[in-house]
Write the structure tokens for this entry.
Amino acid sequence: MKLFNAKIIANHPINARYWHMILDASMLDEHVAPGQFFHLQCGDAQQNPLRRPLSVFHYHQASATLEFLYLVKGIGTQQMTQRRPGDYMNLIGPLGRGFTLPEQGALLLIARGVGVATLHALAREARAQNKTVYVLLSARTANDLLTAGALEEIGAVVHTVTDQEGTSDLEQVRPLLEQLIHAEKIGALYSCGSRRLSKLAQDLAEKYHLKGELAIEAHMACGIGDCYACACTIRSQGQLKTARVCSDGPVFPIEQVVIQ
Amino acid sequence: MSDLSVSIGKLMLKNPIMPASGTFGAELTPLLDINRLGALVPKSVTVSARDGNPSPRVCETSASMINSIGIQSKGIDDYVTRLLPEYRKFSPPLIASISGETIQEYETLAARLDAQPDVAALELNISCPNLRTNGQAFGMSAEATAQLVRTVRAVTDKTVIVKLTPNVTRIQDIAQAAEHAGADALTVANTFLAMAIDSETRKPRIGNLMGGLSGAAVKPLVVRLIYQVHQATRLPIIGSGGVMNGQDAIEMILAGASAVQVGTATFLQPNAMTTIIDDIDDYLNRHQIEHLTDLIGQVDLS
């Protein structure tokens, strides 16, 4: 973990709601695991004192580039869209615990909304290790199905469902996932971005005795484990405990997460 | 190099900068030279473990933030057996912030920590706005403050710092009550009870409805409180609220503070405290002031 400035190489919209930022991360001298995040100062820090935690979309070590796919949601991400190539972003990271790959079997990634940014990094890592990757991508509209093409390019098998087409409800998604689990030697389930789908992933992991991990989001202040702003409840050894999303997570074993 | 040292009760600090409780931990080690700080203040400890408040626990507001963490604490046993030994690797004196639901709990904590050589001083957090409905706290009553401070005073010879709440009609009354009851110093002040609503969803932006406001926006309010307390008591004051840079710290010192706590600024920049120490040093050199203490309360009213 370090505090550093990174030059913006590119920053442009993907669609009406999502932007993509590429940073020069040559300052970074440690490994970035999928699921880890950076804590970014988005704009006018005096007016907007809190950093925003963004999970890594892609870290390319050879070219020393760090990419974020971000949903323009509030003032912080709005300010990020104003930043131009050549400007510097101030970051702390990499932070938190990332995903772990299964020793055997394929990965089944269940993503919705901006959760795909987090799982995209995992898909790349798994493909780099020659593991088979299946992705269920859920979104409001076909236009919001982010990175489906990029995932296919790296050799992931992508299934898309949308609210618009009426294919994204649990009654249809569940059998699709169960069919994949039965047919494809799935070794582990991963989910991010939707409470509903995370709950489904949790049920399936329990039912089929699969390893699983969930990445969760929270409002944060310090981002490094000091302030307890991002606390969540987890279930560990039969007991409910408080954990910090920033430093104990943001990736948790699927059976530990208490989905509200 | 000017002399930045200040004294707070029996404590001699090499400089006036320390973290505000709840914003600091050993996790900052890779990002901040902790040994340069004047003192260290870990998060408030309670007698038993506490889980804290529902999320969201923080939200951003203009030049400020609201928090309602609700004192997530692992309890005094963990503090004594794990946290204090962990802090031995740092050289600045440790000020233990303590919080309780009853006066007896403060007494228990103070007695327990009095026996700990690693604890240099106690800060009585009698002002957390996030423990009871509507931000009620001991520090809102002069009588309760006096009784609490007297009780703690009876069980410890260590420096006792009382952290006041700004959510009162006349802070001078509470400050004087703490002084007469035997406090050695005052922290002015804890966060301001605040609330924010998301206009789109109509939901409160803090899970616990209300929380404490901190950050640059509150600094003028805190400078005023420091000035009022400095006029009303002889106790050294630790200013706390909205300090972002050295100039802000000097402003509090001119209003009457002997030392300054930094909280929200650490969330902006984890190394804010050491930058502030450098800023203060620059200021003293620029104004050819040999001792920082020469500035305390020196607002020019002529």
Notes: The domain at 2-95 of chain A is CATH 2.40.30.10 (Elongation Factor Tu (Ef-tu); domain 3). Chain A has five helices and 15 strands.
